[in-house]
């Protein structure tokens, strides 16, 4: 059934030819967008929905989350707010809880967070394993994620489990663990950071994953300058995520590559670190994505709007740059062109704001502005701001 959405005050398409349209309309046919243009030229459809002057943009594409988990790390957060430094080691707390949880508990928790994100306009979401850290629990995490998320990433190389030998654990990640998860995931990732995995170990994991046909992602340069960006660019990773601390060589390498710099501002704030240098990256010509890094330890939020607001108010991005990075930029980080855009042939993922323009996302910080969402052509329950 075709649905005509009309009365769009401002339409952000992210399409170079279509641009940003006013007094626009969109036709959805099944799960895809069939037509985009001026409302006065809109074709007939089976159903008509008037959004009454509201702004419409692509659904958020959240290209970095860790949502297959159990347990709570409130105590760690409180300690950090009281001045204790963030370290990678807190991941072990979530590992213990996740291993103890049932499949049903993990799946219910994942669905709860994905639904929470969708009510705020997130229509395409990646999530990772990485809280199992043994063959059985990494494999079941991948199975659970594959049933719910749009994209699944293997992150067995999240942390060396307590008591394990690092080199022996890397052997396991590159061997039996990779064998178990490879049929269930599209991507592989590694936490290339002090306290996690060094450059040589990270390179081993990424190369083994590439040999199995998986795309590559890297957690890098979160706690300080390091080899993460360089390794990601050298191996042709789709993205390197965090990028909080970058040398000039890192910025230049990203600008000259196809590797997306995925910035995670909610994590930077929660860990009380400097915000990633978005302006430097953009001015150099690098491709930037924004993502939530939703996880129980260092960034417990599913709000992409919060990330966009932070990027504009504190990272010197324009509203158009931030919205693009949270939609088309996330799609680029996932090597997809069917999401993050409003154009014929794209997936029918639309985010309707309780506002006349996307500017209000930063102009009215903290105000819930999701009025409605379409995902794969299906209209979801209206968001927090309106019963429209």
Automatic annotation (TrEMBL):
<keyword id="KW-0408">Iron</keyword>
<keyword id="KW-0369">Histidine metabolism</keyword>
<dbReference type="InterPro" id="IPR005920">
    <property type="entry name" value="HutI"/>
</dbReference>
<dbReference type="GO" id="GO:0008270">
    <property type="term" value="F:zinc ion binding"/>
</dbReference>
<feature type="binding site">
    <location>
        <position position="64"/>
    </location>
    <ligand>
        <name>Zn(2+)</name>
    </ligand>
</feature>
<keyword id="KW-0479">Metal-binding</keyword>
<keyword id="KW-0378">Hydrolase</keyword>
<feature type="binding site">
    <location>
        <position position="295"/>
    </location>
    <ligand>
        <name>N-formimidoyl-L-glutamate</name>
    </ligand>
</feature>
<feature type="binding site">
    <location>
        <position position="64"/>
    </location>
    <ligand>
        <name>Fe(3+)</name>
    </ligand>
</feature>
<feature type="binding site">
    <location>
        <position position="298"/>
    </location>
    <ligand>
        <name>4-imidazolone-5-propanoate</name>
    </ligand>
</feature>
<dbReference type="GO" id="GO:0019556">
    <property type="term" value="P:L-histidine catabolic process to glutamate and formamide"/>
</dbReference>
<feature type="binding site">
    <location>
        <position position="297"/>
    </location>
    <ligand>
        <name>N-formimidoyl-L-glutamate</name>
    </ligand>
</feature>
<feature type="binding site">
    <location>
        <position position="219"/>
    </location>
    <ligand>
        <name>Zn(2+)</name>
    </ligand>
</feature>
<dbReference type="InterPro" id="IPR032466">
    <property type="entry name" value="Metal_Hydrolase"/>
</dbReference>
<comment type="similarity">
    <text>Belongs to the metallo-dependent hydrolases superfamily. HutI family.</text>
</comment>
<feature type="binding site">
    <location>
        <position position="158"/>
    </location>
    <ligand>
        <name>4-imidazolone-5-propanoate</name>
    </ligand>
</feature>
<comment type="function">
    <text>Catalyzes the hydrolytic cleavage of the carbon-nitrogen bond in imidazolone-5-propanoate to yield N-formimidoyl-L-glutamate. It is the third step in the universal histidine degradation pathway.</text>
</comment>
<feature type="binding site">
    <location>
        <position position="293"/>
    </location>
    <ligand>
        <name>Fe(3+)</name>
    </ligand>
</feature>
<feature type="binding site">
    <location>
        <position position="66"/>
    </location>
    <ligand>
        <name>Fe(3+)</name>
    </ligand>
</feature>
<dbReference type="InterPro" id="IPR011059">
    <property type="entry name" value="Metal-dep_hydrolase_composite"/>
</dbReference>
<dbReference type="GO" id="GO:0050480">
    <property type="term" value="F:imidazolonepropionase activity"/>
</dbReference>
<feature type="binding site">
    <location>
        <position position="131"/>
    </location>
    <ligand>
        <name>N-formimidoyl-L-glutamate</name>
    </ligand>
</feature>
<feature type="binding site">
    <location>
        <position position="293"/>
    </location>
    <ligand>
        <name>Zn(2+)</name>
    </ligand>
</feature>
<protein>
    <recommendedName>
        <fullName>Imidazolonepropionase</fullName>
        <ecNumber>3.5.2.7</ecNumber>
    </recommendedName>
</protein>
<dbReference type="InterPro" id="IPR013108">
    <property type="entry name" value="Amidohydro_3"/>
</dbReference>
<dbReference type="GO" id="GO:0005506">
    <property type="term" value="F:iron ion binding"/>
</dbReference>
<feature type="binding site">
    <location>
        <position position="66"/>
    </location>
    <ligand>
        <name>Zn(2+)</name>
    </ligand>
</feature>
<feature type="binding site">
    <location>
        <position position="222"/>
    </location>
    <ligand>
        <name>4-imidazolone-5-propanoate</name>
    </ligand>
</feature>
<feature type="domain" description="Amidohydrolase 3">
    <location>
        <begin position="94"/>
        <end position="355"/>
    </location>
</feature>
<comment type="pathway">
    <text>Amino-acid degradation; L-histidine degradation into L-glutamate; N-formimidoyl-L-glutamate from L-histidine: step 3/3.</text>
</comment>
<feature type="binding site">
    <location>
        <position position="219"/>
    </location>
    <ligand>
        <name>Fe(3+)</name>
    </ligand>
</feature>
<dbReference type="GO" id="GO:0019557">
    <property type="term" value="P:L-histidine catabolic process to glutamate and formate"/>
</dbReference>
<dbReference type="Pfam" id="PF07969">
    <property type="entry name" value="Amidohydro_3"/>
</dbReference>
<keyword id="KW-0963">Cytoplasm</keyword>
<feature type="binding site">
    <location>
        <position position="73"/>
    </location>
    <ligand>
        <name>4-imidazolone-5-propanoate</name>
    </ligand>
</feature>
<keyword id="KW-0862">Zinc</keyword>
<feature type="binding site">
    <location>
        <position position="131"/>
    </location>
    <ligand>
        <name>4-imidazolone-5-propanoate</name>
    </ligand>
</feature>
<dbReference type="GO" id="GO:0005737">
    <property type="term" value="C:cytoplasm"/>
</dbReference>
